[in-house]
């Protein structure tokens, strides 16, 4: 049994991660402010991650899974509060790659500001740099779009709502913009591989090997709900994020290093079906964005 620290633990990726490793029989500690329900079988460290004080002193962790750090200060505060640990795994972002880099993005490319993601990407990069300077053996994971059970972002859930309500789907232009995804269950499986195998490489792009057009992604979301979409094409005269849940930005990560360690990932169709089955029983808890209201008012 490992002793694992998970930052967060009550929302989407961190919640799934805490539940996954607790379900494996590990002793899981979570850091959060106890403002939401905790998953079963975890030990709560009730505080803000920037105000840890001595709450972690005297505890040795086999692994620290830093899911919720968005800035250098987030990482620094946690590292300075830790007493001792073996592995540190930080969930960074593909937003650290400038959109001007050649694609697919590889781990050895120069990182820097991405004009689409702005401060989010540069803050993640600053957090990475702190880790590289202070914890030489830390693992850094750079995912594309996460999806799966406990999703709290109004992306798949928006499309599910459209399907449930038998709505036409308003899609940007011809729907050929491509997206790359990674299921939260695959993230946890890959983390477990890192903890067990300790590969020499320390930075990994993670994600599905292939991307999907937004049109095909919408079709799979509707299929999960037992429906088939009727599309309405929207011209570039409208701001995409007013009526659609992704920016007008297409990119692809090279995940060959991940694939050397983990050969397969969950199919998007299976992952979306699992997410929909979860969503059917949790749809009242979602913080929705006004995409549907915009569509109804404008189109």
How would you describe this protein?
The protein is an alpha/beta fold and 299 residues long. It contains ten helices and 13 strands. The protein folds into two domains: 3-147 and 182-205, 3-Layer(aba) Sandwich (Rossmann fold), CATH 3.40.50; 156-179 and 211-249 and 267-298, UDP-galactose 4-epimerase, domain 1. It has helices at 12-23, 72-81, 119-134, 156-164, 184-197, 214-224, 240-243, 256-261, 268-280, 291-298, and strands spanning 3-7, 27-32, 42-46, 60-66, 84-91, 139-142, 145-147, 169-172, 178-179, 181-183, 203-205, 212-213, 231-234. The strands form four sheets. A seven-stranded parallel sheet has the order 3-2-1-4-5-6-11. α2 links the parallel β4 (60-66) and β5. The protein is globular and about 60 Å long.
Structural domain count: 2
Question: What number is the mean pLDDT?
Answer: 97
| CATH structural class of the largest domain | Alpha Beta
CATH architecture of the largest domain, please? 3-Layer(aba) Sandwich
Number of helices: 10
Instruction: Output the CATH topology of the largest domain.
Output: Rossmann fold
The strand count comes to 13
Strand content: 15-25%
| CATH fourth-tier homologous superfamily of the largest domain | NAD(P)-binding Rossmann-like Domain
Oligomer: single chain
Q: Going across the major beta sheet, what is the strand order?
A: 3-2-1-4-5-6-11
Specify the structural class.
alpha/beta
N-end to C-end Cα span: 56 Å
Question: What are the salient characteristics of this protein?
Answer:
single chain; 2 domains; Rossmann fold; two-stranded parallel ribbon; UDP-galactose 4-epimerase, domain 1; 7-stranded parallel β-sheet; 299 residues; alpha/beta
